[in-house]
Amino acid sequence: MQLLWLIPILPLAGFAVNGLFGRKMPKSMITLVAVGSVLLSFAWAVKTLLALQPLNQPYVERYFTWFSSGSLNVGFDLMVDRLTAVMLLVVTGVGSLIHIYSIGYMHAEDGYYRFFAFLNLFMFFMLTLVMGANFLVLFVGWEGVGLCSYLLIGYYFVRDYAADAGKKAFIVNRIGDFGFSLAMFLIFAMFGSLDFGRVFAAAASKPVESAGGALTLICFLLLLGATGKSAQIPLYVWLPDAMAGPTPVSALIHAATMVTAGVYMTARSAALFLKAPMAMDAVAIIGIVTAFMAATIGLTQFDIKKVFAYSTVSQLGYMFVGVGVGAFDAGIFHVMTHAFFKALLFLGAGAVIHGLHDEQDMRNMGGLRKHMPIACWTLFIASLAIAGVPGFSGYFSKDEILIAAHGRSPMLYWLGVITAGMTAFYVFRAWFMTFLGRYRGQAHPHESPLVMTVPLMVLAALSAGGGFIPVPHILAAVLPAAHAGHHDPSLAIIAAAAGLIGIGLAYLFYVVKPGLPGAVANGLGGLYRLVCNKYYVDEIYDHTVVQPIKSGSETLLWKVTDVGLVDGIVNGLGRLSASVGGGLRTMQSGNIRSYAAWVVFGSLLVLVFIGMAGGAR
Amino acid sequence: MSGHLLSIVLFTPLAGMLLLLLIPSSKAALLKLWANVVAVAGFLVSIPLVCRFNQSLGGFQYVEKADWIPSLGVKYYIGMDGISLLLVMLTTVLGVVAVLCSWSAVEHRLKEYYAMLLLLQTGMIGVFISLDFFLFYVFWELVLVPMYFLIGVWGGPRKLYAAIKFFLYTLAGSVLMLLGILTLYFQHFQQFGYYTFDISELMKLNLPMGLQQWVFWAFFIGFAIKVPMFPFHTWLPDAHVEAPTAGSVILAGVLLKMGTYGFLRFSLPLLPKASVDQTIVQILAVLSIIGIIYGALVSLMQKDWKKLVAYSSVSHLGFCTLGIFALNPNGITGSVIQQVNHGISTGMLFLVVGVVYERRHTREIKEYGGLAHVMPVYSVIFAIAMLSSAGLPLLNGFVGEFTILQGAFEANRIWAAFAVSGVVLGAAYLLWLYQRTMLGQITNLKNLSLKDVNLREMAVFAPLLIWALWIGVYPKPYFDVLEKPVAEIVQRVRPDYYRVRAPMVTAGLGEANAR
Q: Does a structural domain hold residue B236?
């Protein structure tokens, strides 16, 4: 036994200690418990993986039975294989860095213990998610991370928009879970088990459903779940709002780890998706459309966190394209590199926001290069990485995805390339607006303390060099290889060029000719407003779904059906019996009369009913 | 003594109540203390039921049988299987909770109040252990009386309307049920030449399909009103809103389960043909699903905190009845577990309202907001209660819901698809309620000075919180204890269920052994 359970349980213990006693504990103790538990978890994960080398087969530990009803028999089982190993290291590694960073970022907050308790709880659920050896344990993590997301988005619960955003995230995710739950029932109906090993082994022997079938339906339902958790069309709307949470939360949950759960789940279920090509195509199409659309919105935002939020939606779209075209390894590769550079972008943005006393609008920034050089240059590296500049981590994973996409359809590739160009543009737009030029705000910018800048530097190193970790090679043993796309070097060159052009354009717009963006925005008029207002998707959802449900429930269901119709009949019967009772007053007295009348009517009802039932027979 | 274990459990609250009547009304503290002692004693004497229960046995345990009214064939016949065991334990635990939570909430007519609560305990336990239909009916009706007074005397502003509505509604149902019982009683005389209400004897009846359907619908009205199933639910919001907190806890936690229990103990085993009749099953399932979605939607828009929780019960009980009429082991097992779960989570939600009602004397949601600032511990308890009710994995609600949905899915995939949407809505109304009451700024100055929960209030919540976590993480004992009785019910209504599935069942066992 490798005691796999220690990996998730350690942060859970941290949550329990801080959650129960944190209010009374000194900050240093809270920090020790919270950060220590995650570091221990990281260390235990590394130790376990070393002990399990080379991990060519999944390693499973079964603990105790959870469900045992009829044929339904599900245990708390954890597993590690190479896919889990990558996720484990990313989650505990990046998680540890963000915990350390939070010590500095959150030091002045009243809810310090609450923040760290929830952050630890998140780690527990996220680790359960990636280590679960069956769909139901995965679902525990899946729902749990959603809960923590809710709790942490709503961390500043005094602000209504934060509470709104948390609620929105939870409910939208529940819509996705609707699909996930039904998918589990179908999987159980089809395979008689929810265990990954059994299900995937059995699925391997099934024929490919080119025209659709049960597996296709399962995969579409899983996809619905994935679009919720990973913020893809049509359920992406919660993620931009989720930025209401503290910035380390945005970095950990809404960039590096939780939102990639949909990609992980899809890759984990590769054995099912490979038998359902229609569903695979749907994954890729949803991915590319989301990537493209979110990138366009990213071009127009001024809140630095909103830029990175839409960027996350867009990059998750890339990952979906990867897994959708069968390049599961490339998708996971991008999960990892994205975790590095996007966590860095958010933490860097956090350092800026922190240094400017909660300013998030880039129009009030500028010239911060001199005031916070570490944030500036680490963010520069992250920007190069996400822009896909050759040599930096993002280049490698994005390249793998785009080449595989080209193998499936050149259209996917070209849309991906245009998106890459836009990505480079908006991320450098943000960098230029923040760090170059003159400072436009009123605060006194200052660099952050070491506890925050050291994680930035570590992540910068990973963002720069992370591409050299041979993730696709590591995963080759567990994930089916991508369609062997012909490695035409020109494809890679075009993608890289798109990134460089994007950077160049951003330089032109925001450094050389700062008047240009306004002129272009005015020139585009309606189109610009459409994009700037996020295509009005939130408003459309509100008018077509939320408001009808609310007003329909209030008027039609509650006031008309419940109070009007059903209770109207009931009270009518009551009044009727009262008047009959009044007629019977000469014969009887006391309260019993109304009951008696009621009995009469009850019996009448029976007679009528009997007559009807008899007639129907 | 041990031979009468069940009788002891049944009559401990009643005996305690009789002694309570001897205490002078002026001694308030003594009355409270004694009521709590009796409630705790009621729980303690029920613990041996769990310890000595043998889950590998079929049929009933702790059986006691004696003639009561021989001329009518009425017996004092009690016993329990796994289903009764869970519901009795729910009753004794919630009994302690209900009595303890009344400590400072109720201030007038204390003696009568606690007498009613304790009488209610005996009535409810009696319902869950009676194996004689007449005895069952006596307890069933007995429950009505104290609940009527609890609402009507210690209730809110519209207490009389609510109490009378509750009484008449459920009485109407009971009368029809009585007709059904009498039909079986006389049929038994016709077929066997003697009168009896003994359900094991009544199960030997050979009833034609037509008659079974009639009796089924007669029972249905009685049970469906109690559950309550849509469209018989409109007594529930009024009763809950007006009832004192303890009344709501017992009403939602235990009383509603008398309806679902009735389906399981009487409708299904006594009327097996009618219970699997496609038309009947379809109607019941559709009503359950309407209940799930309708209850949740109506809940969403409530402005009264208690009414919101009341409507959510309609939704949750919809899951329970859907599970029953899935007519397979998963559905029924899940249903019983969910009945316990609903008692725990909704019990907590009503207690949560009770805590602030006692401080502010209003249930209007808009009167609150931002309470998390002044009541941090309370806000955590409320959050856990909410999550347990919303079916978050590792808390109790998920275990019941998932098992029910799995059963429903086996029976009919469309049912499951609709029912799952209730889970989405469940999150919506609860989170919105939480936001409106707990989060944001404190807008009403009266809330600024609210005190957080005290030790006694924490003691009220503690057993329920622990129970919620236990069922959520390790529900196996519950599954184990339900395996036999559920299999017996399924076997009874669908004799070929296990025969057809025999290979699969053995495969399932193999899997269990492999583990």
A: no
